[in-house]
Design brief:
Elements (H helix, E strand, L loop, with lengths): L10 E4 L6 H11 L3 E3 L2 E3 L13 E3 L2 H9 L3 E7 L2 E6 H9 L3 E5 L2 H10 L4 E6 L3 H10 L4 H15 L7 E4 L3 H16 L6 H14 L2 H5 L1
Parallel strand pairs: 1-7, 1-8, 2-7, 3-4, 8-9
Antiparallel strand pairs: 3-6, 5-6
Length: 216
Amino acid sequence: MKKKTQRYFPLVVSAPSGGGKSTVRAELLKRDPRFGFSITCTTRAPRPGEKHGKDYYFVTPREFDNLRRDGKLLEWANVHGNLYGTPVKSVRDVLDAGRIPVMTIDVKGARSVRRLFPEAVTVFLLPPSLDALRRRLAGRGEAPESISVRMRTAAAELREADSFGYIVYNDTLEKAVEDVIGITDAECRRARLNLDAVKRFERDLKRLNSPRRRKK
């Protein structure tokens, strides 16, 4: 029997702002060749070290509005005054390349992804504590006012956690990444993703057991 081609699915990783979703995504891309980066577009300014076309597509508000109006965004959201969106093409390109598109988006965006891709796997990263979340935000240079806004938003985001398929505790990066890879391994074994292999096996057995084949 020929080796089967694995069917994949979008992977959505959400968390409160500062919850570590971008760091987890970076480690997934580094460790496992199954994962591909689905690039998000945003109107916010680049942070130190971020590059256009690699970390994000940095666009103007007018460019973003054009993408949204033309139906080219899978999901979009206004997050603390900045617009973020996932181009549909970005996700489909990764799937067509035979890889798992990893999207790090907010909880509302996750709902939009599930509407277009019902097979999407959703993971909510839970920070170890609110103090840890506050420290992470401060550590990346957020202003005190911004931290306060993001902490208030986190309360609403946590209420959405039960709509996700999985919850991963992000107390240590190593364990969180291992957990997400384990979830991916289990999802890849779903029967609905492997029925093509079963059908090929059935066809091989049918040929093997055919009267003409038995006479030889």
